[in-house]
Amino acid sequence: MNTLVTWIIALAVAVSSLLAGRSLLHYFQLESYQFAGYFRTLRRNWKRAVLPGVIMAVYLTLLLLIHRSVDRFIEPDSLLRILPALGALALAALGGMWCSSILQVKKAKKPFVVTMRVKRTYIVSGIVFTLLLAAVGFLLAGEEPKLYVLGLFPLLLPLWIALGGLCAWPVEKAVSEMYFRDAQKKLAARPDLIKIGITGSYGKTSVKFILGAILQEKFQVLVTPSSFNTPMGVTRIIREKLMPAHQVFVAEMGARHVGDIRELCRLVHPHHGVLTSVGPQHLDTFHTIERIKSTKYELMDAIPDGGCCFFPDDGAICRELFDRTRKTKRLCALHGADDADVWASDVTVSPAGSAFTLHTMNDEIRCETKLLGEHNIQNILLAATVALHLGMTLRQVARGIACIMPVEHRLQLIPSAGVTIIDDAFNSNPNGAKAALKVLKEFSGRRIIITPGMVELGEGEEAFNHDFGLYMAECVDVAILVGRRHTEPIARGLREGGFPEADLHVVSSLDEAAALLRQLGHAGDVALFENDLPDNYSEN
């Protein structure tokens, strides 16, 4: 009977710890189940990281002490000993759910999703924790059981969640490889399908949707939705969405580590590769620009004979990579270049959109788009270069350009009778933030920015945010900074740029920023929402 009671108590602690650790598993999910990112998040949010474990350790220790007090009045070999243990199991589970409910982020920007992977992690973790706790329980058991000591288990809950993820990894690897191979077979059965890979430090999602809109003028196109740019995300789209009628498949390829693009190319085997940019994005995981550059170029390394590599002439790394490429290649340039295949002239940008003349070696056509900003013309040129290479006419391309709709949360203009909103909240990087400020500067009326700054820029993050503030001082009239600690470099840059202290406001959350905007804003003002940090970067 002692053995059965020990197993029940071990299960009680394991289950309640897993339930209480929901917020920690959420961090793990937000970091794409990468252990390095998970531990960085724990360091940034150490109070939130330790609180579930401390609460549960106190609760479980008290609960197990009560169980011990009740259990000692029951005969050692009596079946009745199961009842207090089962009661402890029920109360422990309820305690775990209560702890989870009071600590979860109420308005999460990216809520915790109980996917099949999460379910498998819960199951594997539950088994591992129960075995571990039972082993400790048997070691502690003597004439007088000391199972209440197991209540201290949650004190190391952040590490136990990582251990559960580690133990579940072989299962996930086997499952993902099964789906991966199924998607590979589905693509291999379609030799007629034109497959295009798009990567870059930034701009890849915008270029993907722009290219999809243009290609729709001639082809049936499947574009990976939203930011589905990981091996499992792309695998899911291939397995669930690819139909026999599709003629072109456009896959966005994201990367946070060396080899990520190579893995996606192993899945898709793209015929053509598009590089949108190379810059200091995800420096916290890549550490150097050189590693970012080599990772992005993994796409071009995978392009077979007969395929084509597409580059923008940025006057920097993309141009360097174009020059070194020996495969079939195409170059586009915003302001013209001697060897560009596609370029633009007579560019006009306004709060209503943009217009430009699209040139090829043999012809030209005037184009108009609803997209804001000169940088989006560069994105359009890159997509147009691909479309022309695939046999589309200039007239078809121009029609496609006119049909491009702003991508949600990427310089999306939201007109209003009051304050006009420019929603650029999806993410931010040094180039994108500067481009967004240029767009804001084009508007008349009072210009307001709401931003928490930029993240994932490694050791240079503070300097990048400082420069962001310095440039911001030239473009905005009111600055609302979200997060007192992280935005300090931006505030310093604003002050160095001569920005009036009275127009600089620092708040703790996006809700506070929105409330302040309602208080300060007037009809005719324009407000730019630049970036919205994920929950694992929250300072609350």
Protein structure class: alpha/beta
Low-confidence stretches: none
Q: Report how far the terminal alpha carbons are from each other.
A: 47 Å
Shape descriptor: globular
| Approximate helicity band | 40-55%
Total count of helical runs of at least 4 residues: 20
Number of strands: 15
Q: Sheet bearing the most strands, described?
A: 9 strands, mixed
User: In order across it, which strands form the biggest sheet?
Assistant: 2-3-1-4-5-6-7-8-9
Radius of gyration: 28 Å
Beta percentage is: 5-15%
Please describe what this structure looks like:
The protein is of the alpha/beta class. Helix content is about 50%, strand content about 15%. The protein is built from 20 helices and 15 strands. The strands form 2 sheets. A 9-stranded mixed sheet has the order 2-3-1-4-5-6-7-8-9, sandwiched between helices. Helix 18 (about 460-475) crosses helix 19. The radius of gyration is 28 Å and the shape is globular. The protein starts with a helix and ends in a 10-residue tail after the last strand.
